[in-house]
Amino acid sequence: MIRSELLQALAKENPELRAEDVESALDTFFEEIGQRLADGGRVELRGFGAFSTRHRESRVGRNPRTGESVEVPEKRVPYFKPGKEMRAKLNVS
Fold first, then answer.
1. Residue 54 is inside which H or E element, if any?
2. What is the tens place of the pLDDT at every residue in 47-76?
3. Spelled out in words, what is the top-level CATH class assigned to the domain 42-93?
4. pTM greater than the 0.90 cutoff
5. Which residues, 6+ apart, have CB-to-CB distance to 43 below 8 Å?
């Protein structure tokens, strides 16, 4: 699903809202999650999962084109852990 499909689904489920209001709410939702992660926090959506960041140490990588060694700096990367209900939905037999 892409962003426009999500906007359409939300608008269909909430016909009393204008398209601009749905888009504004979705923008706010994503912005708040991104800002919390940027601040080093965690976002937990019960039944769905939790967003957090993980620290990656610096390392020496390789340029695949030239084979030359490249220093990759340390960084934080986003991480998602699905909730119990989400895992159950994904693994229905």
1. strand 49-56
2. 999 999 999 999 999 999 999 999 999 999
3. few secondary structures
4. no
5. 32, 33, 36, 37, 50, 51, 52
